[in-house]
Design a protein that fits this description.
By secondary structure, this protein is α+β, with helices and mostly antiparallel strands. The chain contains 2 helices and 3 strands. It has a 3-stranded antiparallel β-sheet. It binds zinc ion.
């Protein structure tokens, strides 16, 4: 049964990412047009940010240098489902 739930969660995450990419259209960091296969949606509390993969990696690096790390549950990475 858990593979069914994992599949449903994966599909829900893909749809959430697709929706976020469709709303944002371009990356807030580098202004390139977002592609859901190279975008990452991060949700912390009530705030969500979708970025391209490169800008996300840069953000994660900046956070880590300040001792902050994101929880895996807060991140939907479109690059992971390639
Ligand atoms: Zn970017």
């Amino acid at each position: 049964m858990s593979f069914l739930i994992d599949g449903m969660v994966g599909e829900l995450n893909r749809q959430l990412l697709r929706y976020a990419v469709g709303r944002a259209i371009s990356c807030p960091g580098c202004k390139t047009i977002l592609d859901e296969r190279d975008s990452v949606l991060v949700t912390v509390g009530k705030t969500s940010v979708v970025q391209c993969g490169d800008c996300h990696d840069e953000t994660v690096h900046k956070l880590e240098t300040r001792g902050v790390s994101l929880l895996a549950d807060d991140v939907i990475d479109g690059r992971a489902s390639r």
